[in-house]
Specification:
This protein has 199 residues and is mainly alpha-helical. It has 12 helices and no strands. The longest helix has 16 residues. The protein is elongated, with a radius of gyration of 18 Å. The two termini are 34 Å apart.
Amino acid sequence: MTPDRLRAALVAVPDRDWLVRALIRVAAEPGTVVGYYSVARRRCGHVDLPDAPGWTADTAARVLLLTVLPARGRKLAEVVEQLYQFGDATEKHAVLRALPMLDLGPAAVPVLHEAVGSHDPRLLAAAMGPYSEHLDDTAWREAVLTCVLEGVPLAAIHHLDRRADDALADALAGYAAKCRAAGHPVSPDVTALLHRRGR
């Protein structure tokens, strides 16, 4: 997904004029982003966007508000972290969806750690999108295991097969063995990944 595609998908939101004004204001006065971010759901609605599958109007609007901020790197990460820390679940989710579209480098990795630590399946799935490339191997493996434990489909994990290694396969094989010993089912996507890893 790109900011341009989100803009196009938001053309029919209930209060399009508000969104246009908000984007202009935030770009010129970055300090106003907190206020606009918090009311985006009320102004743009929570409807699914037909032209952006998997996106709702409020999430897309919030992501766009972050993409027009002029800050970069650590300064931008400070804003992102603030919005994540003090946001509700939908606001946190939008922050995570925005990360791959922002010029952050690895500066916002602490936000991913918080999302993984939340054990919230929706936040986990969003955290394991393209920005998860910035997680080191150990943190990434732990995040994958958390996804498995919380029932997040492995299909949500960006570049799973490229990053999966023997250490992850060992951990998943151990998890699967414990599940079977306890008479619990093993999710098909875990079984499939183990098969692809020759386990």
